[in-house]
Design brief:
The longest helix is centred in the first third of the chain and has 33 residues. Helix 1 packs parallel to helix 6 and helix 5 packs parallel to helix 7. This protein has 9 helices and no strands. It is 85% helix and 0% strand.
């Protein structure tokens, strides 16, 4: 396959995967809007906003750096991916501790706090999944990224439909999100392990320092921009004395937040 054909193939897979994923994501949201009570649907939107902040905060451009390094040194994938996984697992643990601390500080009902923690943890697992996607993107294997991306959204929509059919309410939707993220991670791990390289997390402090120093300028602007989209929801949720429940906040911001959720999810291919 010549370069022009390879570029055309990858672009086509990206467009098809992104479009199908967006449709399935919207289907999941519409199912939740139809099946949940009004306050629960608002809370669901708040939970999405809360979770996505931690995903971007933990990533901070590291997956883009990993894509670049693998593209530059395709023969050194085991070392690069293993070291990146070691760094990402370290960030995963630190972010989980931070997530727990933030959840405990929120002035929300205990059930909403628990749901916030589960949704945040699910978004952190996506970072592990897209680290494998970064390798496939560097090797121009976009067909696998497109398939797993659409599968992730399809599983979420399917799990939401089943949970609402079983009348599991908001908790069912939250668990559906967690389950789809875990399966997304598993499939990406299996594809990379079977077709490219099976690696274990390793410690390489010089490489960690290099990746972080290059990721900060790249990721800081992205993180600030994404946080600005969610700041109103998160700040109001911490001010219970104003009478702002998570459900009311999430519902009132849904009209502008859901298009952003679709764009951000599609950009993670």
């Amino acid at each position: 396959m010549n370069p022009a054909q390879r570029v055309g193939k990858n672009v086509a897979w990206m467009l098809v995967g992104g479009a199908l994923g967006a449709v399935l994501q919207m289907l999941a949201i519409l199912l939740a809007a139809r099946g949940l009570q009004l306050n629960d649907f608002g809370t669901f939107n708040y939970l999405l906003s809360f979770a996505i902040v931690f995903q971007f905060l933990t990533d901070f451009g590291l997956t883009n750096i990993l894509t670049r390094e693998v593209a530059r040194h395709p023969d050194d994938i085991p070392h690069l991916l293993g070291s990146a996984k070691g760094l990402m697992w370290t960030l995963f643990v630190c972010s989980t501790i931070l997530l727990l601390g933030v959840v405990l500080l929120l002035k929300l009902p205990a059930s909403t706090k628990a749901q916030s923690f589960v949704m945040g943890l699910a978004s952190l697992t996506i970072l592990q999944a897209i680290s494998y996607s970064a390798v496939m993107r560097a090797l121009e294997a976009m067909e696998f990224n497109a398939i797993t991306f659409a599968l992730h959204k399809g599983l979420f929509a399917g799990f939401v439909a089943v949970s609402l059919w079983r009348h599991w309410g908001l908790w069912g939707v939250v668990i559906s999100y967690m389950a789809s993220c875990l399966i997304f991670w598993f499939f990406n791990w299996q594809i990379v392990s079977r077709r490219i390289a099976r690696v274990s997390p390793r410690i390489d402090l010089p490489l960690w320092k290099s990746m972080l120093s290059e990721a900060v300028p790249l990721g800081s602007g992205l993180v600030l921009r994404q946080f600005a989209w969610q700041a109103d929801v998160l700040i109001l949720s911490m001010q219970s004395r104003w009478g702002c429940s998570a459900g009311r906040i999430g519902f009132c911001s849904a009209y502008e937040q859901f298009p952003w959720h679709l764009r951000s999810r599609c950009s993670r291919q």
